[in-house]
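Data deposition worksheet. Section B asks for the primary sequence of the deposited chain exactly as it was used as input, without tags or linkers unless they were present during the calculation. Section C holds the resulting structure in token form. Section D is free text for depositor observations; keep each observation to a single sentence. Incomplete worksheets are returned to the depositor.
Section A, Depositor: J.P.
Section B:
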Amino acid sequence: DASTGIAVKGYTKEKYKNQVISIVKKYKPNYIAVGNEINIYNNQQEAIEVYNSIYDEIKKISPDTKVFTVFQYEKLADKSMISKFKLDAIGITTYPFIKYSSPSEIPDKYYKELSDFSKPIIFSEIGWPGEEAVNFIDIFNSRLEKANIKPIIIIWGLLYDYAPMGYPWNSMGLFDANSKEKPVFAKWTQD
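Section C:
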């Protein structure tokens, strides 16, 4: 289980691989992420080996599918880890509130290291809790522009506030828990 790092009883690497391959065979997707926030897993070397094996199998079945994994940016101490994976794109989740108390504190060069990679960038989750989420969108875009990063996909992490998880997840949605649109939704969806 990626959320706990504890193996799910009866779930093996082979079962996981078979599930991914089954999806690729059936749908031949344009993009597929294999693993989420993979850099926080307990056994990094095993994660790299399993991912690269799955990558090879996907390419045999669907060579045009863009295969990538996702890294948690705030916990990615060693960016060179990315180069150990066979990637058509680099997936990133970013929640800078882990390190900063306000979006304005995010350094101008916060995402600069991502510009060192020649692969397209996909932000599969971004977000900021509470009222400052609106400001975060402008600052996030500004930091990407300063780093000359032009992501091919950006996804806000939560559609709805999720109260059972507590802070910050209970205030990070584009809608509140009662499906009421929040100011961040208008900002996120403006042209």
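Section D:
Helices lie at 13-27, 44-61, 133-146, 183-189.
The longest helix spans residues 44-61.
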